From TrEMBL, chain A:
Organism annotation: Pricia antarctica
Protein name: Sulfate adenylyltransferase subunit 2
Similarity comment: Belongs to the PAPS reductase family. CysD subfamily.
Domain of life (superkingdom): Bacteria
Residues annotated as domain Phosphoadenosine phosphosulphate reductase: 29-254
UniProtKB/TrEMBL annotation, chain B:
Keyword check for ATP-binding: yes
NCBIfam families: CysN, small_GTP
GO biological process: sulfur compound metabolic process
CDD domains, alphabetized: CysN_ATPS, CysN_NodQ_II, CysN_NoDQ_III
Keywords tagged on the record: ATP-binding, GTP-binding, Nucleotide-binding, Nucleotidyltransferase, Transferase
InterPro entries: CysN_GTP-bd, CysN_II, CysN_NoDQ_III, G_TR_CS, GTP-eEF1A_C, P-loop_NTPase, Small_GTP-bd, SO4_adenylTrfase_lsu
EC number: 2.7.7.4
Stated name of the protein: sulfate adenylyltransferase
Highest taxon listed in the record's lineage: Bacteria
PROSITE patterns xref list: G_TR_1, G_TR_2
A Pfam family reported for this protein in Swiss-Prot or TrEMBL: GTP_EFTU
Signal peptide: none
Amino acid sequence: MSQYFLNYLDELESEAIYVLREVQAQFQNPVILFSGGKDSIVVTHLAKKAFYPSQIPFAFMHVDTGHNFPETIKFRDDLIKSLEARLIVGSVQTAIDEGRVVEEKGKSATRNALQITTLLDAIADNKVDCAIGGGRRDEEKARAKERFFSHRDDFGQWDPKNQRPELWNLFNGKYFEGEHFRVFPISNWTEMDVWNYIKKEQIEVPSLYLAHDREVVWRNNSWIPNSEFLVLDAKEKVEIKKVRFRTLGDITITGGIESEADTLDKIVTEVSAMKMTERGNRSDDKRSETAMEDRKKQGYF
Amino acid sequence: MKIDNNQLLRFTTAGSVDDGKSTLIGRLLYDSKSIFEDQIEAIANTSKKKGFDGIDLALFTDGLRDEREQGITIDVAYRYFTTPKRKFIIADTPGHIQYTRNMVTGASTANVAIILIDARHGVIEQTKRHAFIASLLHIPHVIVCINKMDLVGYKEENFNKITKEFEEFSSKMLTKDFRFIPISALHGDNVVNRSENMPWYLGAPLLHTLETLHISSDINKVDARFPVQTVLRPQREGFYDYRAYAGRLASGILRIGDKVTIMPSGFTSTIKGIEGPSGKLEEAIAPLSISIELTDDIDVSRGDMIVRSNNMPEAAQDIEVMLCWLGDADARPRAKYTIMHTSNEQKAMIKEVVYKIDINTLGRKSDEKELQMNDICKVKIRTTKPLMIDSYRENRNTGSIILIDDSTNETVAAGMIV
């Protein structure tokens, strides 16, 4: 090594690995919240590195809204199998069937808010004391104030005005019975960093991120994929477009962008020229100015 | 964008309430083209609603609902931008006096502090407080931005007067690298682009300064310190005898073949292998996350520190610390706290408050012994077992501690080992 400093991607990688090792050391029963999206895939990749040649010492937890892209579920199952890991699925459909939550009505109804109850139930039922997420501070203004180690009270709630100060690299993961932590190892990464890293490491991601032909409907300024869950109004029509997705959420609310980027190289080039934020195509964030903050306080990811 | 050798620079911003801190950050993001169109659109709408002429750049940094409503910053917010030269992380901290703890938090990992001064008001008490905290937290570089130059007619004499005032009171501080830049965040003078209104200023604009500061020496590359986070013992085929110690190199460099001592036990061994994030390495440099194999089978666990045998930290139970009290409740005399230092965790007691610092005059008050939120004091601490310490001035990672109150689990104090 002739260069005696780390470049920024190496530094971010080492920071995330450090955080993941702290989780393993400080908590009894941590899980990785796995959505099948690129951020949780990167966290999983980092966890592999953090404990190599040991296996990842965390179980995986997926909150299944029932409104999934089929590609995401296949990707999830293949990855879990290759890691020989344990998967915990919290089902929103089950919560609806059991009457724990009531489904929204109307054309733009989503199961987004319903995930909160399912997530908190899954955390409590499985005695999880730390849920590791792929959240990044650059995603949204409420997330900009999030800690690496984020404390949740016994109702699973986040109190942004009463967070523990986080100094240097000293993370305080102490909690009382019933409370838990959310930990975000890639807090300091941006969308660009994530793609650069995926490209550098040649990490496999779901094909949805790459441009492909798909049946879509123009709604809320983006291309919403056609699916069995989508209710069309009279003016909307299904078209076939070459699209890709910048984030993956429920199939009912995740808008695609028209794109020709069908390789990682092309995605990196495209993202570096992007003029809109990645969550700009997520209708769940558009409901109000503080939509994300309100959901986070209740216990959202 | 080529990223191969770009470094990461973390900076924190400090300023009083109306010094234009949010506007400056907004200007940096806006002029460096780090803001997306949908964000600009949202801000433009809000600016119009508020009757602002053009775009209110300060709105880019508004976060939580209470902050938007009250127009203040409550907590540290992190922002990111990248230029072709570097990636930047901004810790945007509130400036009010009651938020000293937030400033300390933001400063703890910063390479650079930006201190804002209103050109109309010059050096005020808050300026001294900000400079003092930057010095206390040993931020390697401080850039003093004299803002709102447009409101004093862009005159050189105003800039010179404030620079002189600042030099006078700051000469006692530990910071070695102070720089001064006259700016107007509102109009963009000397932030990203060179100002045409101040031809007398021959230095670089703020962004260029941030892009070119020498920061690779900010982390100690001399004293190898490896706090063990966890032990890797893969119980699977091909690795049954494998045992490695995982952690992040806090400072210095370690190489295969280095003679090392495990502290506090004092056992010695030799480094047999180093595993980095992308495979085997001959040598590792801080702050890389690695795992280390030793030639001998000895007992090493979390909280231990692996160091070179010819360069060891001090193992101490009685330590002197500059303590910043962060908790809502006052410190309880002679109460026990949990102390965290690197990956080591022990119980500790504050034995004595030596003096308290008057944050406004920067004088010492040796008669005041109680510790309240935002107080900065020199204290003596006794721990149940030794910590492997360096002075904070020499080594930020092995010279820093936090205290945790076991009755609330809150982080109540941050300390810098003297």
